Amino acid sequence: MNKQWYKDNWIYLLIIVLLFFPVFQYIDDLAIRLWDESRLAINAYEMFHSGNYLIPTYEGEPDMWNTKPPLMIWLQVLAMKLFGINEFAIRLPSALAAFFTCISLLFFAVRYVKNFWLGFICALALVTTPAFINVHAARTGDYDALLTMLLTFSCFSFFSFLETSKNKYLYFFFLSLTLAFLTKSSAALMILPGLFIYVFIKKKIVILLKNRHLYIGLLGFVILGTGYFLLREIYNPGYIDMAWKNDFGGRFLDTLGQHKKGFWFYVIHRFNIWLLLIPFGIFTGLLNKDQRIKNLTLFTTITAVTFFLVISSAQTKLPWYALPLYPFISILAGVFIYYIFSFIKENRKLAGYFKYNIVPYVFVCVVFFAPYVLIFNKTYKPKEDVEDFYRTSYYLRDLLNGKRQGDNFTILYDEYSAPVLFYVNLLNENGKNITLRNSTFVKIGETVLTIQNQMKEFVEKNYDFNIVEQYENIVVYEILKEKQ
């Protein structure tokens, strides 16, 4: 690559750099998170060692708690093979998915609207969305960033098919939708009502239904999408029933756990500045002189509103269920910002003051400066919000990295312990003798570590002991004998 190449492509290199840091920097700093990330980490760890790529396991048994298809786990196993078993490998698929989701906004704007700056603005809006560059999203090994990328690809492909009538886009749509289904099953289908409504509004239902490639693509989706469930049911009887309860009707019709929230939960809980620009983006987009921007705005609005209504009508609500909305919110906000950018750029009076009209570019810098600095600082050496809760994980990670010495002890932990188990597995793999026990059973003469007050009270009430080590809220006991 010569100097001319860099001169011609410097702006693309700039956007790659701007996207890279919020997504990737210090991605492995935080300990493995509770719930989905730690569960997936255990699934991937055991799949990596067992070679059983069909049935994810947890502590050696088929995992009937996490019943989603294993595409994300497969990608994590691949990352482990390339980069070792660590936080980076667990999170790399999510980070790459988030990065390419941002890139897709840029690419689609350049390819369809023929406008780099619209794509540049939309990509920056997405990468400066705090809920998107967050744990349980771009920054951790959960399902939702991968799901978001694949649904964004599928929507762009479907829209491109309707605009061009090229069947290759219809196949891209079904491929992306199938992979999304193999990532998070029923969540992939929640985008479909908006697509159907858009087809109806554009009066292309008959054309679509007469297209034989629709049925070929649909057949492929059914075979590949349901094929995994049927195959796993053969080797893991009862799987389909549990998957239905966990991931289909169960979550939508009933409240799982303590996750019953109000209808406007996703607006209130994940509010950000770009939400304020949505009405302006819809208004300026639909009235835009460029028919391509009109069509894109209409499609994005219908898709986003419909998806919002679907997830807001579900009985179970969690913040990350809204993640697939953020690319569309970024587009609508971007359309409005681009409208002002274009107005400034085409203003003859402003252009007359400068040899080169830099005002529109300064405007973009001003708009995104504070949000970008905020998201950069958030991801630069991220701070632990609940350090006491994850103290055991950090303690074990220090043992693993040689920053602390210790061996031959039992961890007493009577709650869900997947984050701790991940590090225990790695320590034992590296020759340490560490046991994780989810009970109050203690052996005379053993060394036990605990962080939980109820476990400390149990040990101190029932046994004579020596305190071997005390670190923050962690206590390591040597059990001497039972109290008389």
Describe this entry's structure for a reader.
This protein is of the alpha/beta class. Helices cover 61% and strands 7% of the residues. The chain contains 21 helices and seven strands. The strands form two sheets. It has a five-stranded mixed β-sheet with strand order 4-3-5-7-6, sandwiched between helices. A two-stranded antiparallel ribbon has the order 1-2. β1 and β2 form a beta hairpin. α2 (36-50) packs across α3 (71-83). The relative contact order is 0.10.
Topology:
Elements: H1 3-24, H2 36-50, E1 57-58, E2 61-62, H3 71-83, H4 87-113, H5 116-127, H6 144-164, H7 167-184, H8 192-201, H9 205-209, H10 212-235, H11 239-247, H12 249-253, H13 265-268, H14 278-286, H15 291-313, H16 326-346, H17 348-353, H18 359-379, H19 391-400, E3 409-412, H20 418-429, E4 434-437, E5 447-450, H21 453-462, E6 463-471, E7 474-482
Helix pairs in contact: 1-4, 1-5, 1-18, 2-3, 2-20, 3-4, 4-5, 4-6, 5-16, 5-18, 6-7, 7-10, 8-15, 14-15, 14-16, 15-16, 16-18, 19-20
